[in-house]
Amino acid sequence: AMRDVLKENEMTNVMGDCYCDDWAFMEAVDNVQSEQFQKEQTERIASLMMRQVQPGSIAIFHMPEKNFRHTGIVALEMFLERCKQRNFKCVTVSKLLETYPIKEFPKRIDESSK
């Protein structure tokens, strides 16, 4: 199970609170060659992300690749620039937890019934 793999590799699973179904946007963008359409979709992704982001957010983007979700690079750049304008700083999850430590992890549902 994933829990065992994470434990074995001394890793922690994290969840994000700022995301976009960018795969759907980017798939559409990759299939349409119109430059205007691509600009509109990347703006849409960046704007949606900005409506969700707040201090301490963990933002999730699908990894863009050449010729596959490549427009996601532009959306990511737009998002990061706008975060900078709002004086947000991008850090690793480790740094985030150093700065805002979790006092106590919530118990799993199956553990709390014991």
Structural commentary:
The chain is mainly alpha-helical and 114 residues long. It contains six helices and two strands. The chain has a two-stranded parallel ribbon with strand order 1-2. 15% of the residues are buried. The model has no long low-confidence stretch (mean pLDDT 79).
Outline the secondary-structure elements.
Blueprint: H1 2-8, E1 18-19, H2 22-31, H3 35-52, E2 59-60, H4 71-85, H5 93-99, H6 109-112
Parallel strand pairs: 1-2
Briefly, what is this?
The protein has 6 helices and 2 strands. Strands 1-2 form a two-stranded parallel sheet.
- Which regions contain 5 or more consecutive residues with pLDDT less than 50? none
What is the gyration radius calculated from CA atoms?
Answer: 18 Å
Overall structural class, as computed from helix and strand content, comes to mainly alpha
- Written as H for each helix and E for each strand, in order along the chain, the element string is HEHHEHHH
Major sheet: order of its strands? Answer: 1-2
Largest sheet: 2 strands, parallel
